Structure prediction request, 299 residues.
Amino acid sequence: MSNTILVTGATGNVGSQLVKQLGETGVGFRVGARAADDARAAGGTKAEVIEFDFNNRDTISAALKGVEKMFLLTPLVPNMVELTSNAAREAKQAGVQQIVKLSGMGADAEPGITLGRLHREAEKIIEDSGIAFTHLRPSSFFQNYLGLPTIKTQGTFYLPLGEAKVSLVDTRDIAAVAVQALTKSGHERKAYNITGAEVFSSEQVAEILSDAAGRTISYVSVSAEDARQGMRGAGMSEWLANLLVELYDFQRAGHMAEVSPVVEQVTGRKPFSFAQFAKDYAAAFKADSSAASSKSGKP
Prediction:
């Protein structure tokens, strides 16, 4: 079976789900990654792993040989537009027929925010290449809550969202839409906003996580500056911390409260509910006995 689909970003929240679901379809695909061992773990035994470095066009060219469709997930770095350009240029030369790009909700907003503008610049590069495109624009991930360590250690999470309601989506649903775009026709030259079926306040998120974990999990609204300092204190770069704070401000202003029917329209099934996600990942939200007495404070 020829491996005519290339998946980038296979070790992340969306990419790992995509290679899992592609593996279940029987479609031939390969995983492009800098860290081969991590990519093999993400793709399992069904994925061919090939070296792929966005900063090295020779590796991009080699990975794209014989590829018809590409799932493009660039790292969230200051030069992500340049990396997209590198990939699109090599894809054009390799005769790739379609690029399915992981973008973000708000990419088409005007004037939007820095993250949205970066995604839109990258989208335009792909569009201008003449290669058929499908832009996936998801809302914030359910799985982001798995990355908040204070839930496990303190039973609390801190976000600068106030009482804002935000649309959320399971990365399993994003991957399912990507599978359809990569394996079925009819998704070319389309941009899909991808969300779950509901919007949530952080208080509601805390209640659902509490039910799943069997313990009280609380939400504390913090200022944007407290959030920024917390992220910087955790080792995040100033550029990324500022980017995320701006995203939270965008959400807090109500600009990401849209509910989209795309998951059901494209996959034929309803999206995962947040309650189902919380149940499936309940172990991640239960108390960490080894750190239960540790109170590290706000983020």
Q: What stands out?
A: The first helix runs from residue 13 to 25. Confidence is low (pLDDT under 50) at residues 292-299. Residues 142-169+196-257+272-299 form a domain with the UDP-galactose 4-epimerase; domain 1 fold (CATH 3.90.25.10).
